[in-house]
Amino acid sequence: MSNNKEIVRLGAPWEKTGNTSWTQCPACEEWFHVGPGLLDRPEVHMHCPACHKEFPQTDAKRLVTSG
Amino acid sequence: MFRPDKPLSIVHDITALQYALEKAERRPIVVVQEPRRADGSISDIPVVTNLTGSRTVVARALGINDHQTAAPIYAQRTGNCIAPEKISGESAPVQEIVLEGDNIDLTKLPALTQHVTDPGPYLTAAHATTYDPDTKTDNTAIQRCWIKSPTRMSYFPYPASHNARNLRKFWERGEDCPVVFWIGHHPAVLMGTQAKLTYPESHWGACGGLIGEPLRVTPSRTFGDSIMVPADAEIVIEGYAPKDVLEADGPFGEYTGYSGPQVAAPVVDVTCITMRKNALYHDYGSGLTDMLVPDNMAMEGKVFGLCKQVAPSVVNVHVPAQGRRFHGYIQVENPGPGEVRDALMAALSYRRLKLAIAVNQDIDIFDDSEMFFAMATRVQWSRDSFTVDGLSGSLLDPSTPVGSKTLSKMAIDASMPLPGRAGAPPPIPPRSKVPDEAMQRAAEILSGLDPNDWPTL
Lengths: 67, 457
What we know:
- The complex is a heterodimer.
- Chain A is mainly β.
- Chain A has one helix and six strands, in the order E-E-E-H-E-E-E.
- Chain A has one domain.
- In chain A, 6% of the residues lie in helices and 31% in strands.
- Chain B is an alpha+beta fold.
- Chain B is 25% helix and 25% strand.
- Chain B has helices spanning 13-23, 55-61, 70-79, 162-172, 187-192, 204-211, 289-310, 339-348, 368-378, 381-384, 436-447, and strands at residues 8-9, 30-32, 35-36, 47-49, 85-86, 97-100, 122-123, 127-131, 138-142, 145-147, 152-155, 177-183, 216-220, 224-230, 235-241, 246-249, 252-253, 259-260, 263-275, 281-283, 314-318, 327-332, 355-360, 385-391, 407-413.
- In chain B, the strands form six sheets. In chain B, strands 6, 7, 8, 9, 10, 11, 12, 15, 16 and 19 form a ten-stranded antiparallel β-sheet that branches.
- In chain B, helix 3 packs across helix 6 (204-211), helix 3 crosses helix 7 (289-310) and helix 7 crosses helix 8 (339-348).
- The longest helix of chain B has 22 residues, at 289-310.
- Chain B is globular, with a radius of gyration of 24 Å.
- Chain A binds chain B through residues 10, 17-21, 32-38, 40-41, 44-50, 52, 54, 66-67, and chain B through 117-120, 159, 246-248, 250-251, 259-264, 398-403.
């Protein structure tokens, strides 16, 4: 995994946290949300729903994961 | 039934019409005779959507006059399975047209792109049928399919689903997984496929139980008797999910009302498409009542059966669309001590429910204002509510904590306290009401007026 992965830190147990991870397309810079099952499989390329570029997770412009 | 008198785009516009109808609280079946593709051409396959947006329509398709009575009837009929009847492919309407080889082209189907975040056209009413390679027992479930090319689509069997289990079994054997998707049938048959069954257990019997006669099935062209398909379906797509091939699928608008994330999903390489002459293409408005109603009504039957086993006083169950598939209302009549909580525990054990509320028969469980009345006046929260952590649930729930595989669920006992002695009124004050005869006279006064002229403020 490249160093563009950002992790949103969890707060205290009583604080609400989101569960959605976001990635940014390296071509058109569209943000779209990705599930943990996809993030766990780096061999599966992401697919930008806007411009349809397929790219490995390591090529994501940004990847912000929850947890 | 609503038939727009001009072409409608399959990209967003048909779904937008559904949203507009839902906002206006209108739930007609929508038939788009001239679906316009993204390239501007008109598909010669009409689109039928909102088929199941109305509980009344779905109930009538099951031969039930009042949708509010459907839960026990659904539970009873899907429990009385009727075995399917096999007919030949030559006699099967769904095989009137057979497309193989270079004639296969998924992109000719008028599959809708529904929501802004969807990456492309999805089959939303494709019923995936696979089989357990150990027992040869088939299983059917709705699974979304993203059309990626003329011969390939991804599909998403939810990881806990029986179809996903069948897929894993084939892949663990080193084999591609045979799979068939069928689209379009009588709503009662569609409801039969929503029956919540054990593994492995075929849905064909439950479909037969609901329609009151054997479901006609025919061997698929690719897999023969190994995977039968409903002979009277509109369209069938056959193919293999190649071993260990996963591709990105989604984001996709889900029943939760949110866009589900992009996932790693199997793909299907299509071997054959069959359809009726003059086939119709069925679409479910994903996240709309069109998709919620049939599954919620099936859930009502399942939850009713679960509760009834431990609490005989349960008389009805409602899973309201406004709660997506997460809220269940349980109605009891003269429960014994502890029985309401028994029923609530049984309801919470059902995977998708995360809130169960019990009320008495004087509360209309199909009217949320009545449910709020019961909670407002019959609940002391520390006494009458409880939460249970670590139960199975839908991980599509956006509130699920990161990394969690289970959910926290809540039950509310909004029933009346038990009477002090048998035959006595319950120990709470009576509800305020005016005499029935006075209400009748009021209705007669109002029936002669046109409320459209009244002030709106």
